[in-house]
Amino acid sequence: xxxxxxxxxxxxxxxxxxxxxxxxxxxxxxxxxxxxxxxxxxxxxxxxxxxxxxxxxxxxxxxxxxxxxxxxxxxxxxxxxxxxxxxxxxxxxxxxxxxxxxxxxxxxxxxxxxxxxxxxxxxxxxxxxxxxxxxxxxxxxxxxxxxxxxxxxxxxxxxxxxxxxxxxxxxxxxxxxxxxxxxxxxxxxxxxxxxxxxxxxxxxxxxxxxxxxxxxxxxxxxxxxxxxxxxxxxxxxxxxxxxxxxxxxxxxxxxxxxxxxxxxxxxxxxxxxxxxxxxx
Amino acid sequence: xxxxxxxxxxxxxxxxxxxxxxxxxxxxxxxxxxxxxxxxxxxxxxxxxxxxxxxxxxxxxxxxxxxxxxxxxxxxxxxxxxxxxxxxxxxxxxxxxxxxxxxxxxxxxxxxxxxxxxxxxxxxxxxxxxxxxxxxxxxxxxxxxxxxxxxxxxxxxxxxxxxxxxxxxxxxxxxxxxxxxxxxxxxxxxxxxxxxxxxxxxxxxxxxxxxxxxxxxxxxxxxxxxxxxxxxxxxxxxxxxxxxxxxxxxxxxxxxxxxxxxxxxxxxxxxxxxxxxxxxxxxxxxxxxxxxxxxxxxxxxxxxxxxxxxxxxxxxxxxxxxxxxxxxxxxxxxxxxxxxxxxxxxxxxxxxxxxxxxxxxxxxxxxxxxxxxxxxxxxxxxxxxxxxxxxxxxxxxxxxxxxxxxxxxxxxxxxxxxxxxxxxxxxxxxxxxxxxxxxxxxxxxxxxxxxxxxxxxxxxxxxxxxxxxxxxxxxxxxxxxxxxxxxxxxxxxxxxxxxxxxxxxxxxxxxxxxxxxxxxxxxxxxxxxxxxxxxxxxxxxxx
Lengths: 280, 543
Description:
The complex is a heterodimer of chains A (about 280) and B (about 550). With about 280 residues, chain A is mostly helical. The C terminus of chain A is likely disordered. Chain A has one domain: MetI-like (MetI-like fold), CATH 1.10.3720.10. The longest helix of chain A has about 35 residues. In chain A, helix 3 runs antiparallel to helix 4. With about 550 residues, chain B is α/β, with parallel strands linked by helices. Chain B has a domain of about 180 residues: Rossmann fold (3-Layer(aba) Sandwich), CATH 3.40.50.300. The interface between A and B is medium-sized, with 21 and 34 residues.
């Protein structure tokens, strides 16, 4: 007997494929150092080596003779790490502010939403570049920058959920029973708002990976970490001579982001209880 | 004998796999004769609306589809027709009126355009002629000032007026069959009486056959010629209205009829109790809406100098139509809404506003909500939901859970219910859980806001019984908010009738119901659909 959630999730074939791809990427990220044959920064072969010409260098080498396969493997780790951590941070900020704004309403809501709008009014990628540039590129500053530019939509979403949920009768009943405000927010309302938050979070991980890649492409990645965006960026100048240098890390980005989007859609189906009985 | 307009023979409709039964409707047969009204009666889930939708070809195929039987409309089997052929019939030959008038009209289209769409779909008439006929249709359904109504948007009309527009829409091409799917359920009792009268009149004037779906036997006796009673997809009884109502054959029909609250004020209990649990003095509450920076808001007086008092073990009924302010008063009483002026004294103590109000009441004032589906947190187990209140007040967890178990037994649910989630329970069971949750706080005052209006009539009777039982057992003072005078008459010692925020009549139940002083009260009482009414009318006609 499968749970209704699993039944609805698995009915979406794309989501299952996405989840499989994601699991592979996660596996690679976890066990990267054991899987990769070479240090991603080490100059181990002649530069501009074509893929599938030398045994052990399936994806060829780059301008400095570094192993691209090892680079892609190590890049998975940093991409997933930054994607996940920055999403968690963004959720913490967004859910907290959104919950407070939606629950209390009135001037609290107005003040917090105007504050949110300040962030929404600035182009998010430009803001991320500025933040990383100010605080020196490092994993921490990149995570912080991505989190800071991606929490406003979460706050908006959580606020709207709270605005409707707090009018519900079970919240009124909890008020009458004398339950404390944090308790009502955390145990009565938040669990009922989780579905859209989870779906949004899965899509935010994808966006965060793209943001990190874009930052690395511009040379604002952590200089000590090999990342997909950096590899694409460094291949930019020799794109016509060595297509494989940009292609493989680029493919890795596309696949991971696509997988996350598919999983997000599957989660949205799975958490939507009203979808039962409808064909897909 | 005239040929029937609609003849349904052995109709079965399947439900998608995984539903609680395989067939929504099983072998149902019914016949609608020209100029007659056939009422299909049943509780929610009995499949009565499925029949209406099947006739109109509105079933969500292929998950829900007819699997057997015929629907003969003027001798043609509707189930064999193609979609374009059905479209030709809908609106022109068969009209339909839906339950919810508030959502049935397109909010951004003028009334005239919406009715005009029926013409555009079926007949080719010049614009002037179309407008003339729409005006005539609007006048026909008793809408005031058709020239103004035709160019206004739906939001300008009340629920009853919108339902009239829907009826005009359904009847404008003079169909031979009109299907009404609970057309008055969402309306107030006085509006309901007007709409029923309108349908009856139009039918007599035009000889339209009516298939009327309802759950209310009161409505049945007002409007029906023939009745079909349905239970879980099967027709259990059918026949002429008087025969079914006066001498029901099937046990289920008898149960449904017996469950209707008779509105007889039974017990004018003289109490020696002197402690006043609740005193409300000159309560005023005004809602202000749309107050923006640049415009003045609209204000609605929800309560105007409302005063009453309540002793232990007594029940006060707050009665009125929707918008009369009765729910607002209820929310002020429990401290969920602030009030503007006046005093609320609970056991002689003046309660202040807002959060402080709830703190001072310390959970001794509890509420049972209207919608049993919204009043329980879907993510909390029942046991935790009931014990949550006492735990918040500092009762030890084990003790609170033990008490929750006792209460579940008291309201007639098994102990295993504590470990289950709300979605596993029916509406009536959820309302029982809501009552148990309120009782867990050991309240002295219970405010029940329309606690049975979302329930089927047989379930309603059981829940009312439970209310009466716990009231005796815990000597509760109760404020019972309802729009149904029959329910109020059965439950309450005193009744306060509210109209536009004011208490227009306040007194002992039997006095108010037997000898109403205010014109509005009399109007309310007259509008209640009664089982006996058509029998009376017939008796008068004979005499």
